[in-house]
Structure to design on (904 residues):
């Protein structure tokens, strides 16, 4: 069975069997390993991608359910100023949660360019960071346009 | 000259006698204070590739022909495999090999905790491997698990030789001399590391050698353990870890998954990956064990400590080690009479592993909480009580400290401490506010051996080569700063090559707050060696004496200012030749105790009706010697405090009290702090080099910040409410219990203290 996925404005053919998650297809079949999987159960946010602009947990989304929607992964956001802002603010330590954090942060600032502290904390609460880069993540999102 | 010595080596508070070849460290320390690169904030050298999702973690490796593994683990806390049949698994599509108990030592049929590896299957895809695993037929004989640590001690069931007794002076006499005695029982829960990248390895055989890609904190330790486990010469084991997604102490060893992958790779002739799932991770990759601490403090009415005593019970699990939970009581204060007994209870629970200052986090919670109870009994300012009992040398083993600036930490913490009056005044009838403090003591001196090489190319750019790992602490960046500083070249001209045992010399473990203090001096020594060679060449080129030359801002300069020529011009003469510098970590100062210190001040709000606790603000002041990168350092402090807040308020591994099975293996049930739980954090470092320690004077910072957080929060709760919390995490139930107890105590006092007839 072959299907297509629109990822970062590129049309990919994929062959994963039904039941494969979007995260598995992205990582294992399309070799887009920027999207991380840390829990595979929808509890940590590491696998966050955008589906038609909305932050979506790729580990609990089935690849075949995406259809024509546009998927944006960290690979499609590499030139976004948010990436540079994370680095500048030291908003990452090990960096494993970081692609997911950045994808969520981009979705947030697309909706509201200058979010308040509470809006940041609300929007980002689903992205766990065990290294505890949170204060700097907050700073990166506050200062991303600098 | 290389010198052979027999010395004590400390990792995570555990000492070992080892032979070491050390090379003398001939370099003078830089004067105190920030320099042009060292001591200035530096953005992570590998930040961009991590942020862009380009960094290839072990989890991201996709080798040609790579097979995937699923591991059958014991679902029981105590059970024996009666019968196991792997053949149904082998019949399923995509399956290559199945291993069972005894095929390798890491697969067992006698299981004494949940999560023991029993069997493993590898297949073309992970889904196939899992399906095959489900087809394995297995019968268990289940035994009743021993889960109660106190009961294990009663039965004399220990993970080590028995209780560890440490005594100085005469504890009983100290108690008799005391004007006031306080006692308390404190408990701490099991907490889980939860590194975002789970434990995993990809193993492939290349001829008679094996390549191990692994998410690890210790490339060289993995190399040695794999070599001895597989009966190979260490040089036939290549260990690679370029990026890793967190470890916090849990990834110091290769563990079962690496050996499973190695065996499957051998049998299939293919690269094999074995990765723990999040649920396996939270059962079987280690934990900070629970403790019970029964503590006594005796003091004179002026606050002078006369006796410190404690029974410390580490509920270790089936194996592991009994951490120095007594360490803070032994080391933090000057007290002549101290007696501690530490028990390592062996129970049917998964083994502990080092977790960011093992023992000291737990022990500091007990000691520093009870010390505040003493302060309130004596009506003494808690900060003043600590100053009065300041230790000016290591009382536990009578050695001087190489440096100790805890008094300076207290001084700098004063403005935060002074806020308590204003914070308390903001309390309402239902929400009480208060401020608490706690001190920190820990190791963090690092040590030899550790080596680095420096390669200077003819374009004047420099590569630092050493086979260390950067587990997210930013050591790679710190090494670039040190090399650039010593060589007088721009930070951007330095590349750091790490992460591969085949491509660089031995480097220290990233545990015990030791990477920077171990590796930094070696990198500086290597840079100095390269610099000496560059100046030798420049002297000949410019017909000047070497001693009048120096490197500055990327130029070779002469003392009289007449010469300033770009480094690339001098080394450019060499074309394809390269300058190679090498450096080794010198010894730690003999006869001295190298430790780190600090203090944290927490502000909390407690809803006395619901028992909810909020941490509003934490100020941290630590003394870790010279600071290399203040930006990265502040991130480490924040990270440590946030983990500390998690341990204090929400994190707890729960198990079924009857079967012993872990109930919180998923991240829905195990409550990690989120961004919404983070208090305002203010951090400050004393930043004075330790004049006795290496050519840098730097100590480690990975662990210190997590140590005092729980006690500072508990003490702030006491300040706000008068309630003595005694167990971590401070759940609402624990908070309400403590509030009720405080209320009863107040009523008692009223009765006793009330004048007759009123
Ligand atoms: S990996 Fe998808 S939410 Fe954790
Ligand atoms: S940076 Fe390590 S988990 Fe977020």
């Amino acid at each position: 069975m072959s299907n297509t996925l629109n990822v970062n404005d590129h049309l990919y053919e994929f062959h994963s069997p039904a039941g494969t998650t979007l995260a598995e297809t992205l990582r294992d079949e399309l070799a887009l390993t920027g999207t991380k999987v840390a829990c595979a159960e929808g509890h940590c946010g590491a696998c966050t991608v955008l589906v038609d602009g909305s932050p979506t947990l790729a580990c609990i989304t089935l690849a075949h359910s995406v259809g024509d929607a546009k998927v944006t992964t960290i690979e499609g956001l590499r030139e976004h100023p948010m990436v540079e802002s994370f680095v500048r603010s030291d908003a990452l330590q090990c960096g494993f949660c970081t692609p997911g954090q950045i994808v969520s942060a981009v979705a947030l600032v697309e909706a509201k360019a200058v979010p308040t502290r509470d809006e940041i904390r609300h929007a980002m609460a689903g992205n766990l960071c065990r290294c505890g880069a949170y204060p700097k993540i907050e700073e990166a999102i506050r200062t991303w346009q600098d | 000259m290389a010198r052979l010595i027999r010395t004590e080596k400390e990792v995570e508070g555990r000492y070992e006698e080892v032979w070491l070849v050390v090379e003398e460290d001939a370099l003078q320390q830089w004067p105190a204070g920030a320099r042009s690169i060292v001591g200035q904030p530096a953005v992570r050298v590998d930040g961009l590739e991590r942020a862009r999702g380009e960094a290839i973690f072990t989890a991201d490796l996709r080798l040609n022909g790579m097979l995937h593994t699923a591991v059958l683990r014991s679902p029981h806390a105590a059970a024996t495999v009666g019968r196991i049949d792997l053949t149904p698994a082998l019949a399923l599509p995509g399956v290559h090999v199945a291993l069972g108990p005894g095929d390798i030592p890491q697969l067992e049929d006698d299981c004494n905790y949940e999560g023991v590896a029993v069997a493993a299957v590898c297949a073309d895809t992970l889904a196939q491997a899992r399906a095959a695993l489900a087809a394995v037929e297995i019968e268990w004989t289940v035994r009743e698990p021993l889960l109660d640590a106190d009961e294990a001690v009663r039965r004399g069931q220990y993970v080590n030789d028995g209780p560890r007794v440490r005594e100085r002076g005469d504890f009983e006499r100290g108690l008799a001399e005391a004007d006031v005695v306080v006692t308390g029982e404190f408990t701490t829960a099991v907490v889980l590391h939860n590194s975002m990248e789970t434990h995993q390895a990809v193993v492939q055989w290349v001829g008679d050698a094996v390549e191990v890609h692994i998410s690890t904190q210790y490339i060289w330790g993995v190399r040695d353990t794999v070599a001895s486990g597989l009966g190979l010469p260490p040089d036939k084991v290549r260990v690679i870890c370029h990026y890793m997604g967190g470890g916090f102490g849990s990834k110091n060893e290769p563990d079962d998954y690496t050996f499973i992958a190695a065996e499957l790779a051998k049998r299939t002739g293919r690269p094999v990956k074995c990765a723990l799932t999040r649920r396996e991770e939270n059962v079987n990759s280690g934990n900070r064990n629970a403790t019970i601490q029964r503590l006594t403090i005796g003091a004179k009415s002026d606050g002078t400590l006369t006796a410190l005593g404690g029974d410390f019970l580490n509920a270790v699990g089936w194996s592991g080690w009994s951490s120095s939970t007594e360490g803070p009581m032994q080391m933090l204060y000057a007290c002549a009479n101290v007696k501690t007994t530490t028990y390592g209870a062996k129970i049917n629970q998964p083994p502990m592993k080092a977790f960011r200052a093992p023992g000291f986090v737990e022990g500091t919670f007990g000691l520093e909480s009870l010390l505040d109870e003493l302060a309130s009994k004596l009506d003494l300012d808690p900060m003043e009580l600590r100053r009065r009992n300041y230790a000016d040398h290591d009382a536990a083993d009578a050695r001087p400290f190489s440096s100790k600036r805890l008094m300076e930490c207290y001084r700098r913490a004063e403005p935060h401490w002074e806020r308590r009056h204003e914070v308390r005044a903001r309390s309402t009838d239902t929400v009480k506010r208060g401020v608490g403090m706690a001190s920190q003591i820990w190791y963090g001196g690092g040590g030899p051996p550790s080596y680095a090489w420096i390669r200077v190319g003819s374009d004047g750019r420099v590569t630092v080569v050493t086979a260390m790992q950067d587990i997210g602490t930013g050591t790679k960046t710190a090494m670039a700063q040190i090399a650039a500083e010593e060589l007088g070249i721009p930070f951007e001209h330095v590349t750091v090559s790490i992460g591969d045992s085949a491509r660089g010399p031995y480097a220290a473990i990233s545990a015990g707050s030791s990477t920077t203090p171990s590796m930094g001096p070696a990198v500086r020594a290597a840079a100095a060696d390269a610099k000496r060679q560059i100046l030798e060449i420049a002297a000949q080129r410019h017909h000047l004496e070497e001693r009048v030359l120096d490197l500055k801002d990327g130029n070779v300069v002469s003392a009289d200012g007449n010469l300033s020529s770009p480094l690339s011009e001098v080394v450019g003469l060499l074309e394809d030749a390269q300058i190679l510098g090498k450096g080794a970590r010198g010894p730690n100062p003999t006869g001295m105790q190298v430790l780190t210190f600090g203090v944290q001040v927490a502000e909390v709000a407690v809803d006395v009706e619901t028992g909810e606790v909020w941490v509003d603000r934490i100020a941290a002041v630590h003394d870790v010697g010279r600071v290399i990168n203040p930006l990265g350092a502040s991130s480490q402090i924040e990270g440590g405090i946030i983990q500390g807040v998690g341990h204090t308020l929400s994190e707890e591994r729960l198990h079924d009290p009857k079967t012993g099975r872990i109930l919180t293996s998923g991240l829905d049930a195990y409550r990690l702090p989120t961004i919404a739980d983070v208090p305002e954090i203010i951090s400050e470092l004393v930043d004075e080099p330790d004049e006795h320690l290496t050519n840098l004077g730097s100590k480690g910072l990975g662990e210190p910040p997590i140590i005092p957080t729980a006690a500072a929060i508990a003490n702030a709760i006491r300040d706000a409410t008068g309630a003595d919390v005694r167990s971590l995490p401070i759940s609402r139930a624990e908070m309400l219990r403590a509030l009720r107890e405080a209320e009863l105590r107040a009523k008692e006092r009223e009765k006793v203290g009330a004048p007759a007839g009123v």
Observations:
- The radius of gyration of chain B is 28 Å.
- Chain B has 19 helices and 29 strands.
- The CA atoms of residues 38 and 617 of chain B lie 29 Å apart.
